[in-house]
Amino acid sequence: MTGNSSIPKLDNATLSLFKNTNTSIAISVIYMFVTAINLVGNGLSMWILIFRTSPKTASIIFMINLTFTDLALGIALPFQIAYQLQGYNWRLGPKMCSSLTLIFYTNMYCSILTMMAIGIDRYLGIVRPMLFRQIRKKKSMAVIGCLLMWGLVLCVLYPLMTTDLTFEFPELGITTCFDMLKKDMLPSTAAWAAFLFSMVFILFLFPFCVTTFCYVSVIRKLAKDFKTAQKDRAIRLAVIVLLVFTLCFAPNNILLLTHSVLRLFYKKSVYMAYKLSLCFSCLNSCIDPFIYYFASKDFRQKLRQIMNLHSLSSGDSMKMEHKESMYSAHCTFEGQERQHSKVYLMPGTSQRRESETT
């Protein structure tokens, strides 16, 4: 993954990745699937959270923050798809490469921290409702929390913003984007270790432990309650969040740590496995709308209203058509009955007989 700034040196794992077209196509297909689900699901979620959900509680603000990062990833992924399909040849320049790489990793780690914040908010609301009641009511605390998340992530990922992440490899005739980093990106091996370990431990492992504690505490608290519906939703939410951590985030960060240690100290690599885990980490943006559904009662109600709107409209129109057809048949029957009664009336008695008929 790293090489000298002037003489490119690829390990066998990275070289085989660049030459393996099947892997490139498989990763591109996954990214296409994620992009489609991401833009539809999170676009609808953003519209509901901003325009249809009120009041804007702390949880809603955290969800808006999470949706924003997911949509940014959905917009950036098509560029990554084009890069993969062109044989790992980046043609959009160093600045675009740095921007899209930053979006990619910011989405992952802001998602992790935001899920932790939602878990803490639910913990305070269910396990410690009286002690932190006033804090949870302040929207400014949620906004400050989101700003602190972004600040922390950007501080850790600062080297990605200030470095040319493209790398020309003449032997294959390609220019890579973040697949091969220069050793002089950071001044020393210790700086590399601090950068990579902070990503794994500060931005993943610590939030994972906090989130697990919060949701386990919530489930234990609700297990003593008779409100089974609330308990079931809380359990489903906990399962979904932990599923996102274990299936989307954990493999990528564990492989990042493994690859970094092997590359920095043993000159070995597991880069192909890391690359595959990186594309699976994007699946979190498809699962996040389910988190909103179970975490927010207001979001559930608004989504159900939207989903039932078409069927209700169709049902109402069918009822109106049925009423109109019944009314038309009734009028036709009355007209025929009146016309039939007039046929048998004698001259001079039409007025009296007609009044009797009607």
UniProtKB/TrEMBL annotation:
Keywords: Cell membrane, Disulfide bond, G-protein coupled receptor, Glycoprotein, Membrane, Receptor, Transducer, Transmembrane, Transmembrane helix. Pfam families: 7tm_1 (PF00001). SUPFAM superfamilies: Family A G protein-coupled receptor-like. One of its GO terms (biological process) is positive regulation of Rho protein signal transduction. Residues 41-292 form the G-protein coupled receptors family 1 profile domain. The chain crosses the membrane at residues 25-50, 62-82, 102-120, 141-161, 190-216, 237-262, 274-295. It is found in: Cell membrane. Disulfide bonds join C97-C177. One of its GO terms (molecular function) is thrombin-activated receptor activity. GO terms for cellular component: plasma membrane. InterPro entries: GPCR_Rhodpsn, GPCR_Rhodpsn_7TM, Protea_act_rcpt. It is a multi-pass membrane protein. PANTHER family: G-PROTEIN COUPLED RECEPTOR (PTHR24232), P2Y PURINOCEPTOR 8 (PTHR24232:SF25). Belongs to the G-protein coupled receptor 1 family. This is P2Y receptor family member 8.
